Amino acid sequence: MIFTLMAASGMSLYDSWKRMRKLVFLPMFRKEADEVVRQVEVLGKDPLTVMQHRAGVTKSKLYRNFLSGFASSVRSGGKIVDYMRSELKSVFELRNMAITRSIEKIATLVEAYSVMLIVTLCTYILFVVFSATSILQVLGSTSIPNSPIITYLVAFLFMPIISVVFILAAHNMQMSSFPDLRDVYKKALVLMLAIGLPISIILLIPSLSSISQAVGMAELVTIGLVAISLPMAFQYHKIARVNYNAEDAIPNFIREVTESQKIGLSPEKSIIEATKRKDYGEFSQFLDLVRSQIEWGTPLRRTFDNIRQKIRSWFVTVNFAMMIETVEIGGNSTQALDILSEYSEKEHEIQINRRALLRPYIILAFIWSILIAVTTTIVALTTYLMSTVVSSSLSPIAIGSMQDQMSVFSVGIIIQCWISGFFIGKISEGNLAAGFKHSAMLAVTAYVSLILSQIFLAGAFGIKT
Fold first, then answer.
1. Span 235-293, pLDDT tens digits
2. I need a labelling partner for 368 at 20 to 30 A (CA). Which of 67, 200, 249, 338 fits?
3. pTM of the model
4. What does the domain layout of the chain look like in residue ranges?
5. What local confidence, expressed as pLDDT, does residue 234 receive?
6. What fold does the segment set 244-355 form as a domain?
7. Average pLDDT value over all residues in the chain
C-alpha cells in the first residue's frame, strides 16, 4: 500500500525505499529498507538487482512475488502505478480470503474447546460419582484412585492448563487490533497478586478455614475473580470504545481530506477542514488536537507522532501515517489519497465483518458455564439419592462427602469458566484484555447457576443441604 502511494505521488523506486526507513511503526520493513539502501549505497548495486536478490532470499511467497513483479514492471517500462494498484487489489483479495479461512479455523478451535469442556464435565461427573457418595464405600477396596489430591489436581491444575493451551492456539490464529496493551496486563498482574494470594492463603491454611466456611469457598473465589476482572474490564472498555470509534472514523476522515484536495485546497487546509466535521464521535478530540497543532505551525510528522502516542489501534495508526506520508511527498497526492481512501474503506469493512462473524461465539461460553454447573449438580444430587436407596445408614456420610466435593468442584467450575472468558476474548477481539469482561460475567454466571441448581434441585428431590 505504501509503495503504491509513493509511486502514485511520483516518487522513484529508490527514494521509496529510503522513505521506508522513517516508518517506525513497521520495524520489519525498516530493517528490509536498511538492507536495500546499504547494498545500493555501500556496495554500489542497482536497486532492481537488490530487489531481485531480496526476492530470492525471503521466505514470504507474497513478498517475493511483489519484489519480482515490481522489478520486472520497471524493467519492461510499464506503468508502475497501474501495476501497483493491480497488485494491491490482489493482496486485498488474498487478505479477505485469509481472514475468511482464519474464521473457519477459529470455529474449528471453538468446537474443539467445546469438546474439551464436555470431557471436563464428564471428568467432574466421574469424580462426583466415585468420591462424593456412599458408592465410594462400596468401592473402597478397589484400586480406583480416591485421594483428594487428585481431585484438586484435576480441578485446579489439569483443566486450567488445557484451557491455557487453547488460548495459546487462539493467540496464533487471531491478532489484536491493539498491539500495545502492556499497561493493562501489568495492572491485572498486580491485582491478581494482591487479591489472589490472600484468598489462596485463606483456602489453604487450616487455621483460617473459619473465614472460608463463614463466607463460602465458591463465594470467596467468585468475589476475588470478579474483583480482579472488573477494574481491567472497565479500563479496556474505555480503550476499546475510543479506538473502535477511531477505526470507524478514519476512513471517512481520509475521504474528506481527499475530496478537499480535489477542489484545490492545500494539504494542511484540507486536513483542517476535514477535522471540523462533527460526526466523528470520540475521535473528534484527537482531530481537534491535530487541527490546533497544524494551525500553530507544528509539522505534520510531529503531529502524527503525538497522535500515535494516544491511539492504540494499528489500523488507525497505519492509515493516518500513510496519509501524512502522501501529503508530505506531494506530487500527484490527489490520486494517491484516492487510492488510500478506497482501500481504507475496504479494510475497515473487512474488520467489521470479521468481528461480526466471531461475535456469536460469545453466547456459547455462557451455555458452557450453565451446562457444566447444572449437570454436575444434577449428577451429585442424583447419586446421593441412589446412596439413600442402597443404605440409609450411609446417607450422613454421603451427604457430608458430597458437600465437600461439591465445594471443591464448584470452585473448579468457577475458575474454569473465568479462564474461558479469556479464550472468548481472544477469539472475538484478538487480545486477552477483551476477556476480562467475559471472565467476570462467566464467573458470576457459573456461580449463580450452581447456587440456583442446588436450591431448585434439592427442593425438588426433598434434600436438605
1. 998 888 888 888 888 888 888 888 887 777 777 788 888 888 777 778 888 888 888 88
2. 200
3. 0.78
4. 2-78, 107-173+360-461, 244-355
5. 92
6. Receptor-associated Protein (1.20.81)
7. 78
pLDDT of residue 133: 47
Q: How much is the pLDDT for 384?
A: 65
pLDDT lower than 50: segments of the chain:
132-136, 138-146
